Amino acid sequence: MRDMRTAFGEQFDVPDGYLNTASIGIPPAAVADAVERAVADWRRGRSSPPDFDADVAAARAGFAALVGVPVERVAIGATVSQLVAQVAVSLPAGSRVVVRAGEFTSVTFPFAAQAARGVVVDEVPAAELADRAAEADLVAVSVVQSADGAVADLAGLRAAQAAGTTVVLDVSQSLGWLDAEIGWADAVVGAGYKWLLSPRGCAWLAVSPSVRERMVAHQAGWYAGDDPWTTVYDLPLRLAPDARAFDVSPVWFAQVGAAAALPWLAGLDRAAVHAHCVGLADALRAELGMAPAGSAIVSLSGPDVGERLAAAGVRSSVRAGAVRVGFHLYNDANDLDRVVRALKR
């Protein structure tokens, strides 16, 4: 049996050379155990739908703590695009949206799909995004880019917000390792199955009061009701008074895992987590003659990079024509050395 790794007080059954967290994170053993227990209860007929409400609440509170907002501002969903769409469909007709060129399409497609209402989406180079955002009604961007790990100019985006632009941030590739203040944004959305070490099927949206006021609950269902267990039948519309009005019915087992993972992540020393993850990534960059980037994600180009890493037992992925590796809590110097040996051989 493979030895378990211990990191930040938890055990991980993660294989050596696993550097693919940007695609799918490996949960702490305690998180996987919680999901397994829930599945076992389901298998044996011991589950009841209200049993999962506590997990939904715990995961919601964990996301709120990680973002730095009151829990009343957080809605749940299953995917980023599903939640971004609720912001996009509530934009006034004719709005202008600015996005970074090469942005992940779960961020951009929901806005582009509003073209019939006159919503215009402009793609601009990353270096121009903050300046161009000040001229738009809304800017939507990943805090850390999926393909290359580039970190957004948060100070510039905050300046655009002060000029009247609504700022939407996707934290799917940053929340869980990046030590940055993001609670100021008008909307913050993130998926759980990468750096938040949760099962696929859970995502969250934190909205400011001003955005909340102009949003319409286009996906309203029973779980968006003021009391989900009494709003399952009949009209009139009885939505929750806070961001729960935008809830989508939860994926139960994903929420069980998130309830175990997010509160733990929120309780960690964020500066220490950042230093660990970025320290390994920038050490790799230094070994390969690259400049430090302050990101846990490293994009590697060159002949046969992917093949050499795979032969060395390194799990990575290919994005935008380059090989992507990422360092999270459970990675260590052995993983770094494995990559360096493979690429310097």
Automatic annotation (TrEMBL):
**Is Lyase among the key words of this record?**
yes
Tree of life domain: Bacteria
Instruction: Work out whether the entry's keyword set contains Nucleotide-binding.
Output: no
Record's keyword terms, sorted: Lyase
Q: Which residues form the Aminotransferase class V domain?
A: 55-292
Under Gene Ontology molecular function, one entry of this record is: lyase activity
Q: What is this protein called?
A: Selenocysteine lyase/Cysteine desulfurase
Species of origin reads Pseudonocardia thermophila
